[in-house]
Write a structure and sequence with these properties.
single chain, 139 residues, alpha+beta, 3 domains, 4-stranded mixed β-sheet, 64% helix
Length: 139
């Protein structure tokens, strides 16, 4: 009769529930560990750039160097240099001088042509369109 009592204790619902819950916990733990390992591997492989991404063509590298150089030049430019550059751009304006009959006497840049500069100093200002200025000599 003693064997019967032991068998009934082992087959009780408490013993089976404890064994089943331990197996379930082990299975859930192993699934979580596998998922964590997969996420870690995925992140590690995603962080590494491919070999194709690391290589840069000669055109790309020269363009990048030009862009960096232009930024450095712009940063190093002083206020005086900026003003001088603007004056140089303004001095390239074209000038046309007409006589009283409306005929063109001279045209060009008065900063480089002394005879044109003399005519501009004698003439009356008419109008300007864009970078061109128009003058007329009064007789």
């Amino acid at each position: 009769m003693k064997n019967n009592i032991n068998n009934t204790v082992m087959n009780s619902s408490k013993v089976n529930t404890q064994n089943n819950s331990r197996r379930t916990i082990k299975n859930i733990s192993s699934l979580i560990a596998m998922a964590l390992a997969m996420v870690t591997l995925f992140q590690a492989s995603a962080d590494k750039p491919g070999k194709a991404d690391l290589r840069m063509s000669a055109l790309e590298s020269s363009t990048l160097l030009e862009i960096e150089a232009s930024f450095n030049e712009a940063e190093e430019m002083s206020l005086e240099e900026i003003v001088l550059e603007e004056l140089a751009l303004e001095s390239t304006e074209g000038v046309k001088v007409f006589d009283s009959n409306g005929e063109l006497l001279a045209s060009g840049n008065p900063t480089t042509d002394s005879s044109l500069r003399g005519l501009v100093n004698k003439a009356d200002y008419l109008a300007s369109f864009g970078s061109k200025k128009y003058y007329r000599l009064a007789e």
